[in-house]
Amino acid sequence: MRNSINWFEIPVSDFARAKNFYGALFATEIQEMPHSMFKYGILPGDMQNGVTGGIVQGEGFTPSSTGVLIYLNGGDDLATPLSRVEAAGGKIVMPKTSIGPNGFMAHFLDTEGNKIALHSMK
Known about the structure:
By secondary structure, the chain is an alpha/beta fold. It contains 2 helices and 8 strands. The chain has a 4-stranded mixed sheet, with helices on one face. It has a 4-stranded mixed sheet with strand order 5-8-7-6, with helices on one face. β6 and β7 (104-109) form a beta hairpin. α1 packs antiparallel against α2 (79-85). It starts with 7 loop residues before the first strand and ends with a strand.
C-alpha cells in the first residue's frame, strides 16, 4: 500500500463560497467535476501518482468542526497558504506550530465550518 489515504471529500453547504475559499487558499482555480447528484470541485493534486480530494455539496454532506481532521499540503512553507485563510473568509484556530522534526502544522475553520489542517516541513 502506497498511502493510507487515496481520496478525501470536504463537505460544503455553499459550493460557490467554498470554491472561492479553497481557490484562494491554494492560489488556483478549483475545477468543477460534473456529477449527477452533487456539486463537486477537485482540489489541486496529482490524481495519478498521489492523493487529492475535493469539495462536495449535496445530501448527506454536512460540514463539521468536530469530525476527522484532514491535513492538506501546505507546500514549501505553510505560512504562505495560511496567510490567505482569513482574507478568504476562514478563521485560524491554531497558528503555525512546530512539531519538531516532523515540520509544522496549523488548523483553520473554512467558510463552511470545517476544521482543516495544513502541514509543511518549513
